[in-house]
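Q: I have four molecules that I believe assemble together. Could you output structure tokens for the complex as a whole instead of separate predictions?
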Amino acid sequence: MEATNKHNWRTKLHEIIYEADTPSGKLFDVFLLILIILSIILVMLESVNSIDEKYHNTLYIGEWIITILFSIEYILRLISVKKPLRYVFSFFGIIDFLSTIPMYLAFFFAGGAQALITLRALRLLRVFRILKLARYLGASNQLKDSIIASRIKILVFLFAVMVSSVVFGTIMYLVEGEANGFTNIPKSVYWCIVTLTTVGFGDIAPQTPLGQFITTIIMVLGYGIIAVPTGIVSAEYAKASNKTHNKSKEVTDKDNPELKIVPLNTQSCSSCLAEKHIDGAEFCYKCGEVLHHE
Amino acid sequence: MEATNKHNWRTKLHEIIYEADTPSGKLFDVFLLILIILSIILVMLESVNSIDEKYHNTLYIGEWIITILFSIEYILRLISVKKPLRYVFSFFGIIDFLSTIPMYLAFFFAGGAQALITLRALRLLRVFRILKLARYLGASNQLKDSIIASRIKILVFLFAVMVSSVVFGTIMYLVEGEANGFTNIPKSVYWCIVTLTTVGFGDIAPQTPLGQFITTIIMVLGYGIIAVPTGIVSAEYAKASNKTHNKSKEVTDKDNPELKIVPLNTQSCSSCLAEKHIDGAEFCYKCGEVLHHE
Amino acid sequence: MEATNKHNWRTKLHEIIYEADTPSGKLFDVFLLILIILSIILVMLESVNSIDEKYHNTLYIGEWIITILFSIEYILRLISVKKPLRYVFSFFGIIDFLSTIPMYLAFFFAGGAQALITLRALRLLRVFRILKLARYLGASNQLKDSIIASRIKILVFLFAVMVSSVVFGTIMYLVEGEANGFTNIPKSVYWCIVTLTTVGFGDIAPQTPLGQFITTIIMVLGYGIIAVPTGIVSAEYAKASNKTHNKSKEVTDKDNPELKIVPLNTQSCSSCLAEKHIDGAEFCYKCGEVLHHE
Amino acid sequence: MEATNKHNWRTKLHEIIYEADTPSGKLFDVFLLILIILSIILVMLESVNSIDEKYHNTLYIGEWIITILFSIEYILRLISVKKPLRYVFSFFGIIDFLSTIPMYLAFFFAGGAQALITLRALRLLRVFRILKLARYLGASNQLKDSIIASRIKILVFLFAVMVSSVVFGTIMYLVEGEANGFTNIPKSVYWCIVTLTTVGFGDIAPQTPLGQFITTIIMVLGYGIIAVPTGIVSAEYAKASNKTHNKSKEVTDKDNPELKIVPLNTQSCSSCLAEKHIDGAEFCYKCGEVLHHE
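A: Yes, here they are, computed for all four components at once.
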């Protein structure tokens, strides 16, 4: 019974499209990645007027080829899952849909579905899932740990930056006024963040001596506080780095060693799309559905 | 005797307005926080000409609603404290007063009390007190510790930045001169800080080859010295982080364990407004006044 | 047999030109370094119109002197190696050739070989090889180790920066549009990187309130994420620093002590040009060729 | 014999002017510090045209008062030292002289000694010596240690920045050309450093797509390498911080404890002007001259 299920085409399709542990699954992901990058390059080229004028037809054909390939991918994703609606309303499901339809919309209704096409850029986020498989996993996890560990501290810090931007922005609006480009408080606060973060576009710049003096304080403050998140992440990262080191040592003589050694694979449940299954798992840890292995 | 005092309305009001350990106290703080943010958004919208022209009346009514709510808060704060003058002349007392009166001033005397309204931005600082309650306490304290620990070093560093800005600013004034935007030494020093902190507005930029060469030195210097405060805070933060870790371990078997474990609450003395009382404190540590608990 | 080989002129020439352990080898390197820097200064001066007009002849003569000296160096390098083709097609071989020929090309064919002359700047890279000899070795190796150790993490990080630049760049193109300087998506992505890295040229700057709001998010993001590579390198460098410290201690009582203590010299095999030979090596570790010592 | 020397006026004057361990010595230093700051503010105000026009006479008189006070200080410094020439040709001796004479020059020869007046800014450097006395000593020494420890590494790093600036600057000159503001290679290299250090003035900005692409690489490189000096200083500072901590512990049970505990004072030899004498020193460690204590 188990065996018959295991090798039907739908299970296989699910494995190829949603997972990346099998050679064909990896191949599909790499092909998809190239397709996404190509589609983004296409959108970029279209937005350049001089190129669009010259190669409009070529780009138009390329656009249709990618749209059709995306459509096929979308349909395959739909039929390979047991509960298609779950995919349709998932984050990537919505992005996949919205980045596939613009050409159809433009064909049937004519006119500006251009905006939707740019949604394809969000498809790039899928890259992280695809690349996660490889050895990058360890590196990015350690990074993620240190960022999560310092999350609250960084939030408190960003909050302090925001409050001081509002305070200084309001002061600068009063000091410089509309004549010098600080036309209203929101713009003044925006300028203040531009200065605090040391970006300094220069489209707005203080003209009065008092304004320049306050700007000096803002800049030195910004220069000084850049040290804070850096210091936090440094320390947390060093800590996370040590912990990882210790963990891998302890694992052999402590409790629950399997839990820590067993690496996660890229399987995704064909019913609820849950991920992060450990190797050797037979059932989905979330909905109890049978997990299929080749 | 104690019991009759404990439950009179003034004590309760004090608890609600100045403290945040009781549900009603928390509710009041959250409501106040929302009111402050709303009032700041209102001030921001008023400063945008296009919005002010369209919705002038709506904004005017909103301004009066907030002014009346702030007035009520101010009066409540006054009557719930035993020594109201202490509140009136405290930092937040002055800010509360100044951010409440502009509408009355505008009503009676007409004309530009606009400037005072922007003082409301300073009310945002109250946010820190309100948010301090939650779990952020631990995080921000550790941050504060590491900043305090590296305070002197950062001051020495900022001093060095200032001195080199004056020296380089003067040199650039001589090299570039008024023709290239370096109209006087203070402006030249201001430009130097803009460059050292890597903000680089670009409203003033060196034009002569020699000036550009000196600018190169300033920039590389600024790029190099950004490492110093970062390094200091990193090291101090790591130290503070270790200390916290050790402290929590030692606490159980060392002297004065209560002092270290007992968390501070948000009570504030109804007589002298002193804060940072430990849980279970019966008297104000500063003026001896009885502290009331619900 | 060994002795006769050792002291023939070709071996000596190889030692002088390719290595830097003998006094004459060091002298040659220092002389070459000065020549490279002089040639780069010459190219720089030529590019300045006002100087070129005034001293055209002097610069032209200087250019020929350097070209001839470079030609001699190139020929010497050719004849002192056993397999000259290996040098010709090595990285520095190609750079040496390309930075030597432009004057000859200009002489025979007239017209713009100017572009090739600027290739000399790449010759500066040789500086690293020359300075590596001295005590800088230890310092830069430790640096290299920490950069290599954090390579993958920094790549993941840079990848995240790139993806978010594409996403935010596309959004800004839609929000701001061509009227405000965001003429196409590639330019918009370029602007996004300018902002994320806190460079902020200001040639393009958001004009709409929504665009400025998104810019705020980009800047705060950029300000926040600058902490990540810094934190990584800090931690890795500290680790590398500790390791070096421990290694030098362990070396005396652990296995393979010679391997770790013996410093590399600057010898290069006269047959295959392989470098990184340990002191006392008699044969090339790569092709088995005899290594000659003075 | 010792006693008669000890209390003569010249010794006392030396103690007051050159040292800062006695109350009168401290007072002199504080007074001098205020005078230097006042003189710099005066120079700054003079450079502002609108202020100079209004208060020209007041500023002129103030200038003379400061000049006379500086003259007195200079003469006192001369007569209180045994070998005046050593002071005259020391760094501060030259600065003191040059910042004192401009008013005399202007009086006798008329015309622009303005430039020399600005040399007073360099007098600010004396501030470090004066402030060193106080508790800042510990802090700044630790800072100095970590900067010295990472000196070579930072030099190697700065060198890499310089070489890549020359390489990228030359490339940008070829790609963008004179039409887009990259008028010559030195200017192009200057622009490259402006970009690498994330200053980004924006007076010159790439206009061609290829130039913008290369700029992206430069910026990401600059963003990435800012991590390197920060990481180095962080690690070195943490090391220096640990060492200090360990040192103060070890001092009590190790050899040479006095050498490490005994703090330096601010005495300076009246003969050779050497500084950094330890407390209780009777003779100058450099020239053997008797050191005088009150």
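A: One point stands out. The CA atoms of residues 146 and 234 of chain A lie 9 Å apart.
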